[in-house]
């Protein structure tokens, strides 16, 4: 997957993070990860809702692409989230993620 394919999805993901659009965020994840989202959210180092989000880097790869986003929580603390994206079901989806 190249960056030109991935970038619009990552930008939409960041927009959904900033607007706390849970439905859009859920759709960005691989189907098998969706049931785990409450646990992932609970493990974040800052409370929700997020007040800001931005793309730090996109490292496009053939099979797996790695994205780093800077997220700012409701308490004003920022952290970096690392996510892995793969092409699934006809579009890029998050297949793994954790605070970096």
Describe the structure.
With 100 residues, this protein is of the alpha+beta class. It has one domain: Nuclear Transport Factor 2, Chain: A, CATH 3.10.450.50. It is 29% helix and 36% strand. It has three helices and four strands. It has helices spanning 3-19, 22-27, 37-42; strands at residues 52-59, 65-72, 78-88, 91-99. A four-stranded antiparallel beta sheet has the order 1-2-3-4, with helices on one face. The longest helix has 17 residues, at 3-19. The protein is globular, with a radius of gyration of 13 Å. It starts with a helix and ends with a strand.
- General form: globular
Output the helix-strand order: HHHEEEE
Radius of gyration: 13 Å
Assembly level? single chain
State the CATH class: Alpha Beta
Q: Tally the beta strands.
A: 4
As for the number of domains, it is 1
| Average pLDDT score | 94
Structural class: alpha+beta
The CATH architecture would be Roll
**Biggest sheet character:** 4 strands, antiparallel
Low confidence ranges = none
Helix content: 25-40%
């Amino acid at each position: 997957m190249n960056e030109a394919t991935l970038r619009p999805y990552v930008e939409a993901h960041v927009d959904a993070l900033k607007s706390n659009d849970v439905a859009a965020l859920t759709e960005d994840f691989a189907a098998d990860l969706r049931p785990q989202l409450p646990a992932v959210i609970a493990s974040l180092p800052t409370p929700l809702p997020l007040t800001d989000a931005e793309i730090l880097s996109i490292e496009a790869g053939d099979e797996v692409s790695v994205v780093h986003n800077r997220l700012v929580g409701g308490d004003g603390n920022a952290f970096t989230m690392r996510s892995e994206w793969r092409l699934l079901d006809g579009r890029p989806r998050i297949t793994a993620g954790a605070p970096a």
